[in-house]
Design brief:
47% of the residues are buried. The strands form 2 sheets. Strands 1, 2, 3, 4, 5, 6, 7, 9, 11 and 12 form a 10-stranded mixed sheet that branches. 32% of the residues lie in helices and 23% in strands.
Length: 233
């Protein structure tokens, strides 16, 4: 069977919220929610499968609703399914949503070698950036900040740092700009909006579609934007 369209979600500052928002918008279909790294279980799912066998996964995805599946991991998290089960889930679902990296609760991040883990044949990559990082030292706000040699512990997160993180995420995704979307989340103040607009303008000139908003305050914009790009890709 043909695999379902797949959206990988990477970055920091709202990945899980974005994934859940998209899953709920599609819950009239068969929605397969999983990870290639680690996530906390999606408790809002119709079915939560831990260490599923093929029959369980196929049965769960035989009817509409959100199915969250993964392997048992430390701290109550789920890790990625074996490749054969991931492929089976994609073939049975109408849409697959996959959280593809971790950020240790930081609003921004850089990626070490081997990250993110984008599924083969992924249609779209949603890059999430948390604007709450602005004004904070990179040592507090950026996961693995040491990967940028130009920064020190006290380098303040500015529009320039935000732009660097966005471009770095695009590069490591391995996908062309037309298959990537950039979400500036946590836009809850004038200074945050101004910085995000400055960076978004530059990224749009580079062929990236960007949105600025707050999933906490109003997530209505997310699904039409992302799913619209998915259906046109």
């Amino acid at each position: 069977m043909k695999p379902s369209p797949c959206i990988a979600i990477i970055g920091s500052g709202g990945k899980t919220t974005a994934m859940l928002t998209l899953a709920k918008a599609c819950q009239h279909q068969r929605v397969f929610v999983t990870t290639t790294t680690h996530i906390y279980p999606i408790t809002e799912a119709r079915e939560l499968l831990v260490n599923p066998d093929p029959e369980q996964l196929q049965d769960a995805l035989s009817r509409p609703g959100i199915v969250c599946a993964g392997m048992a991991a430390k701290e109550g998290k789920l890790s990625g399914l074996p490749e054969d089960l991931f492929s089976l889930g994609r073939s049975r679902a109408d849409i697959t949503l996959c959280e593809a990296d971790g950020s240790r609760q930081h609003p921004l991040k850089l990626h070490r070698t081997g990250e993110p883990v984008i599924p083969a044949g992924c249609n779209l990559c949603l890059i999430v950036l948390g604007l709450s990082a602005l004004g904070q030292p990179v040592s507090q706000a950026v996961h693995r900040w040491q990967l940028c040699p130009a920064w020190t512990e006290e380098t303040s997160v500015s529009a320039e740092v935000l732009l660097f993180c966005a471009r770095e995420a695009l590069q490591v995704s391995g996908l062309p700009p037309e298959n990537c979307l950039v979400l500036f989340n946590q836009a809850e103040g004038a200074a945050q909006l101004a910085a995000a607009r400055e960076v978004a303008q530059q990224l749009q000139q580079e062929g990236l579609s960007c949105r600025i908003g707050s999933l906490k305050e109003d997530a209505f914009f997310l699904a039409p934007w992302v799913l619209g790009h998915l259906h046109s890709s």
